[in-house]
């Protein structure tokens, strides 16, 4: 029997957000390596793309995700998530409310939400139609400039809630500070630069996977 999207999300530990790597022209090769290393979910997060370009990039990503059994996530846009039949739509605080996004994408795909406080995370954990949530940025990060760090205490606060839904820590996380995030209680992480800028994305993803699995 094929695992449902929710079952696949439940076992996901490592979530990658990547841009289209247009200038480097190596998106499929990069993803092949990162997913071979053990990335479970991949999101296209590239604010420079027009809708048509985003759709084309996502079609490429879908092929790689299917080959590796990873979930494909769309950032922000419910219309694009529907068009590409994405597995996941990720919504921030400024994006469509969940119920409106559900009207567009239907009941099948998963929806994730971003949060920066324990209170927002608690609300997301109880919000109808939300399948997982993220909390961050744990550390200030050049990938999302201008956002103050939420810090490890927010990760500790969310862990103390013992959320019913899967949740991920995000923001400034790399192999050098992963142990601090795990010690704060997170068991799933989202990363950008730790893989997009890794010399060996497969080895880096494998090391994330090993340490996340060891943490339980
Ligand atoms: C998995 C994941 N978590 C958090 C975010 C951030 O979403 P948002 O706050 O909407 O900011 P942008 O990424 O859209 O700039 C995310 N994209 N993915
Ligand atoms: C896309 C994003 N969202 C964040 C949030 O806190 O919601 S932090 C972030 C960027 C994370 O990038 P890196 O792993 O390179 O620090
Ligand atoms: Mg967003």
TrEMBL record:
One of its GO terms (molecular function) is magnesium ion binding. GO terms for biological process: thiamine biosynthetic process; thiamine diphosphate biosynthetic process. Mg(2+) binds at residues 76, 95. Pathway: Cofactor biosynthesis; thiamine diphosphate biosynthesis; thiamine phosphate from 4-amino-2-methyl-5-diphosphomethylpyrimidine and 4-methyl-5-(2-phosphoethyl)-thiazole: step 1/1. SUPFAM superfamilies: Thiamin phosphate synthase (SSF51391). Its EC number is 2.5.1.3. Pfam families: TMP-TENI. Keywords: Magnesium, Metal-binding, Thiamine biosynthesis, Transferase. Residues 14-195 form the Thiamine phosphate synthase/TenI domain. It catalyses: 2-(2-carboxy-4-methylthiazol-5-yl)ethyl phosphate + 4-amino-2-methyl-5-(diphosphooxymethyl)pyrimidine + 2 H(+) = thiamine phosphate + CO2 + diphosphate; 4-methyl-5-(2-phosphooxyethyl)-thiazole + 4-amino-2-methyl-5-(diphosphooxymethyl)pyrimidine + H(+) = thiamine phosphate + diphosphate; 2-[(2R,5Z)-2-carboxy-4-methylthiazol-5(2H)-ylidene]ethyl phosphate + 4-amino-2-methyl-5-(diphosphooxymethyl)pyrimidine + 2 H(+) = thiamine phosphate + CO2 + diphosphate. Gene3D superfamilies: Aldolase class I. It comes from the Bacteria. Binds 1 Mg(2+) ion per subunit. One of its GO terms (cellular component) is cytoplasm. It is an enzyme of class 2 (transferase). Its cofactor is Mg(2+). Belongs to the thiamine-phosphate synthase family. NCBIfam families: thiE (TIGR00693). Condenses 4-methyl-5-(beta-hydroxyethyl)thiazole monophosphate (THZ-P) and 2-methyl-4-amino-5-hydroxymethyl pyrimidine pyrophosphate (HMP-PP) to form thiamine monophosphate (TMP). This is Thiamine-phosphate synthase. It comes from Actinorugispora endophytica. The gene is thiE.
């Amino acid at each position: 029997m094929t695992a449902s999207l929710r079952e696949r999300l439940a076992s996901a530990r490592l979530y990658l957000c990547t841009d289209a790597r247009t200038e480097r022209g190596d998106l499929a090769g990069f993803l092949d390596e990162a997913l071979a290393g053990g990335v479970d979910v991949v999101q296209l997060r590239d604010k420079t793309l027009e809708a048509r370009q985003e759709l084309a990039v996502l079609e490429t990503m879908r092929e790689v995700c299917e080959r590796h059994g990873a979930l494909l996530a769309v950032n922000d846009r419910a219309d694009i998530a529907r068009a590409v039949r994405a597995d996941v739509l990720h919504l921030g605080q400024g994006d469509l409310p969940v119920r409106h996004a559900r009207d567009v994408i239907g009941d099948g795909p998963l929806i994730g939400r971003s949060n920066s406080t324990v209170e927002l995370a608690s609300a997301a954990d109880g919000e109808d139609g939300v399948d997982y949530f993220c909390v961050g940025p744990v550390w200030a990060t050049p990938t999302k400039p201008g956002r103050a760090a939420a810090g490890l205490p927010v990760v500790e606060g969310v862990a103390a809630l013992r959320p019913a839904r899967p949740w991920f820590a995000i923001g400034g996380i790399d192999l050098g500070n992963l142990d601090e995030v795990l010690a704060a209680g997170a068991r799933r992480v989202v990363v950008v630069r730790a893989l997009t800028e890794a010399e060996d994305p497969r080895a880096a993803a494998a090391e994330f996977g090993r340490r996340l699995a060891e943490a339980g």
